[in-house]
Amino acid sequence: MLFKKPQVAFYPFMVLRDDYKCVRCKSCVDQCSFNATYYDEDLDAILNHHENCVNCKRCEAFCPTDAIKVVKNPSTFHPDANWTAEAIRDIHTQMLTGAVILTSTGNDKPIRNYFDHLLLDACQVTNPPIDPLREPMELKTFIGRKRDDIQFDEDGINIKTKIGKQLELEIPVIFSAMSYGSINLNLQKAMARAAKEFGTLWNTGEGGLHKSLKEFKDCTIVQVASGRFGVDLDYLETSAAIEIKIGQGAKPGIGGHLPGEKVNEGIAETRMIPVGSDAISPAPHHDIYSIEDLRQLIYALKEATNYEKPVFVKIAAVHNVAAIACGIAHAGADAIAIDGVRGGTGATPKSLRDHVGIPIELAIAAVDDRLRKEGLRNEVSLIAAGGFRSAVDVLKAIALGADAVYIGTVAKIAAGCTQCQQCHTGRCAWGITTNDPKLAKRLNPDIVAENLYNLLRAWAHDIKELLGAMGINAIESIKGNRLRLRSWGLTEQENKILGVLPAGM
Amino acid sequence: MERKLMKVYPIEENCISCRYCEVACTMVHSESQDPVKAYKLEGLKPRPTVEVKGAVSISVMCRHCKHPFCFDACISGAITVDENGKVNLDEDRCVGCWNCVLVCPFGAAHPFVERKHSFKCDLCEERGFPACVEACPNRALIYDFER
Question: Does the predicted interface ipTM exceed a cut of 0.95?
């Protein structure tokens, strides 16, 4: 290609346009935020720079006459199991730039998804299933520290024991941490509204809480991360819970970097940094080098908020996750959030996204086991994150031992995301992971709030149907109930870690 | 004259410049009721036009003004105002002088040079509900009583 490096010609996607159906409305030209589509007045034709196409499918979705299809480039490299197109293109990128390859969303490698290898039980003859449309069914979930013992009044009916602050969820699904900056305010607004209406929580992420969202106080988890963006007493108090973010499934062990050019006035004010300055989250919290240090921060936050807010600690699922989670429980956290290897992000080096961490299914099982063995399970709630795709995944995670799950990618997909992995560019054509005013306005918070509410409603129905088939009428009764799971196609060792029997046993 | 008119109101903050309003309008005003044939065989053009400048975009169509300049300027009596305040353009009576095109402060009256008449938004009178409002994917157009 003229004036370009030769490798640029090996682009992965192409835009096919049925010229007969094209009415030259130029919708696609305007929708493309990656400069892959343009109108040539002399030719009266709409043409493409295929090399810029990222397969976000925005043009395809907004072509009024269905004239566009974005396809994989049929021109391939020589078929080779080792030297895949991805491997070759990554070398091209690094040899031309000399830089780490940045990407976004979650791990896209075929790491075994254990949810797909787990099967749920159902009742037949010897125990009756329940019809969730006729009989009451409860998904209510309480997050927070539970007491070891319960004492009753003399009457033996009323509970005398006072338990600490509990968060009451109508569905064990919480919107995951996505910061203002990595996503725009419109999606945060939509998540906050949907969470409030349905009776669950949303998480601010590490970018602070925008003043317009303070009204959602009672359904907001505020995050305190290594950059401490937007953290002050008012922030901590405008919340249902506080989360200390240690790590993230998509990039365990590294921090974050919101480039200065993305820090507009709104973000600067919310993060409490100057406009245009880089927002850098260090890899470690520089005041946390041990479990004892973590305990200090947990209690500093509790002290600051008068012991009224549960404190969560979020970590990435890494090799020693069970031991680390135990330490966090000992340190006094009210809930541990664990983010698995498939967790998403707005920007991460590709090598970390694809090769660091362990699957969440194994992490849940290992952590739940270990906490039980240490007699700590009732002291902390366990929130699983990273790669949940459906209500079935949620239920399987709860059967493995989680109390609730975080969904981030699901919320993004409900807002239009097509998983094109370009969040880090800030050019999201669907207006999700961008703060460019032209693009951000594409996400109408009213519409997305409705979509998210519908999604939670649908998942609640789904979970109820599955529970009913198992003859269970409350989500509490499936929590950690691995006897209602069977696996297929897993090794003995994997079954042992998951604590499930193979199908047929 | 008591005005009880429903108009199409564009909301700038929600407009994503996708041109669905344009194409939907062209389609429903065509013989074929097909968007491709409407543009390519019938040579029709959209009545609302999406104006884009940077992050700002908005769909502009006839505002059915209280004191329509086009009505004053029309030399053939093609433009009339009904009892509700709706501004009608009779394309058969139009002689193509383009006065309405020149005086419209919104650029909402368009010349159809080939057919020698001008055209503008008729609020989808025959259809009952404006096609542009129905087609808008981001709720950037609303059909409401005059404010």
Answer: no
